[in-house]
Write a structure and sequence with these properties.
alpha/beta; Rossmann fold; 2 domains; seven-stranded mixed β-sheet; five-stranded mixed β-sheet
Length: about 475
């Protein structure tokens, strides 16, 4: 496995899909390549020693600006990984109709080994390196949180940027995933998990697709296994549970548990907080090893942790009918081939986990417009609905129940609008991909269909820009 290249795997998927398009080979080559790769080393004083930190920022495409993509803090961060994730971001944004091009950043450190003050120094220095080379800005390149980073780091980035670019009116838009008090948007935290839920729910509502898999239509009663209980895995599991699915298995790095009657996600998380592990959760059974959860009997398997967890070796043992890729790149190309042969539906990462970037886009728009979503219309909608409902009650002589009344009168808050925008985005993207797949039965799987959609959109952008006379 050591010679596995994540970027190579992305290129392989791209090539597989490119043959189903009619673009000039030169355009395809341009879409495939990373346009700008910035590799840096900078010194930071840690304790009484100077440490040289290795970091990256890759801008995969410039067919639209700004570029967009998260920043990871992990020891595993390397150029190959950052390039692959940047490329996936380009395709992801294209599929969900978010007008950004793909980028990605990373710092090769273990964030657990540093104090918050040291992490702040590293983050701020990284930001100033990006500013120096014009690799960050609301119209240039807009980072976001990823593995090992969160709202705190984004707040440090925006503060560094705005202090080095004073008076830039749209400065808050230089990064997304910020705390709400620093220009963040409500609904960002659960966005990726909710997007995974909306995408899979749409697939589950398609009767022809479900018939092929031998499953009934709808979310209710589906047996779901989630691998990874971070932000994405937790919210995905929670939304499935709230809509009547059974979470039968949960897995984390310290171990995995199952209960065929269903696990209560919040209680498991609480148990893990107090005991430091998922294992021995009351009413559940421990697996011998954490990877066993991937192979258990279920309808939907959701890998929501790191890449390459399902490969040529363990793919033949997977029993799920549907695999929803909540993580980036959890399947290797060998696993893909195995599932395509066996008729297992893989709902691909490149669009399924696009909830984060979709809501990031809403946050960026909010920063550029300098007004909170819902501020202008909330009260107007409530007043109008109150009036309409009053008229109906007068005319019919009947009163509407208070719970229903509350729902009808409610004017949209920011989080309502953000979630509604996300729902619309995921439904449209799912339908577009399925449409392309249906039109061309030669396309082997949903991932290839998603790539075809992405290549066509990026290709059209390049063609319309007149870059290729």
């Amino acid at each position: 496995m050591s010679d596995y290249s994540f970027f190579g795997a992305v290129e392989k998927s791209f090539d597989k899909a490119a043959q189903f398009t009619t673009w000039d080979p030169g355009i395809l080559e341009q879409i495939k390549q990373c346009n700008a790769v910035y590799r840096m080393h900078f010194p930071v004083k840690i304790g009484d020693k100077v440490e040289v930190i290795k970091a990256y920022r890759v801008q995969h495409s410039h067919h639209k600006l700004p570029c967009k993509g998260g920043i990871r803090f992990a020891l595993s961060v390397n150029l190959d990984e950052v390039m692959a994730l940047a490329a996936l971001m380009t395709y992801k944004c294209a599929i969900v109709n978010v007008p950004f091009a793909g980028a990605k950043g990373g710092i090769t450190i273990d964030p657990k080994k540093y104090t918050p003050y040291e992490l702040e120094k590293i983050t701020r220095r990284y930001t100033s390196e990006l500013i120096k080379k014009n690799f960050i800005g609301p119209g240039i390149d807009v980072p976001a949180p990823d593995y090992g980073t969160g709202e705190r780091e984004m707040a440090w980035i925006v503060d560094t940027y705005t202090s080095m670019r004073p008076g830039e009116i749209d400065g808050l838009g230089c990064v997304t995933g910020k705390p709400v008090t620093q220009g963040g948007v409500r609904g960002r935290r659960e966005a990726t998990g909710l997007g995974v839920f909306f995408g899979l729910r749409e697939v589950l509502s398609m009767k022809d697709v479900m018939d092929k898999l031998g499953l009934p239509v709808g979310v209710e009663g589906k047996r779901v296994v989630v691998q990874g209980l971070g932000n994405v895995g937790y919210h995905t599991a929670k939304f499935f549970q709230e809509h009547g699915a059974k979470i039968v298995g949960l897995s984390e790095y310290e171990g995995a548990i199952y209960n065929m009657d269903g696990l209560d996600v919040d209680k498991v998380v609480e148990h893990r907080k107090t005991k430091g592990s998922l294992l021995n959760f009351p009413g559940s059974t421990n697996f011998a090893k954490n990877t066993d959860a991937l192979e258990m009997e279920c309808d939907i398997l959701i890998p929501a942790a790191l890449e390459n967890v399902i490969n040529g070796q363990n793919a033949p043992n997977v029993k799920a009918k549907i695999i929803g890729e909540a993580a980036n790149g959890p399947l290797t190309p060998e696993a893909d081939e195995n599932f395509a042969k066996r008729g297992i539906l893989v709902v691909p990462d490149m669009y399924l986990n696009a909830g984060g970037v979709t809501v990031s886009y809403f946050e960026w728009l909010k920063n550029l417009s300098h007004v909170r979503y819902g501020r202008m219309e909330k009260r107007f909608t409530e007043n109008l609905n109150t009036h309409i409902l009053g008229q109906i009650e007068d005319l019919t002589g009947k009163k509407v129940e208070s719970k229903e009344k509350e729902l009808i009168l409610h004017g949209p808050e920011e989080v309502d609008l953000v979630r509604s925008g996300l729902e619309e985005t995921m439904i449209t993207a799912t339908r577009e991909i399925m449409e392309v797949w249906k039109k061309n039965p030669q396309i082997p799987d949903m991932r290839t269909a998603a790539y075809v959609v992405a290549i066509n959109k990026v290709g059209t952008s390049y063609a319309e820009l007149g870059i290729f006379p």
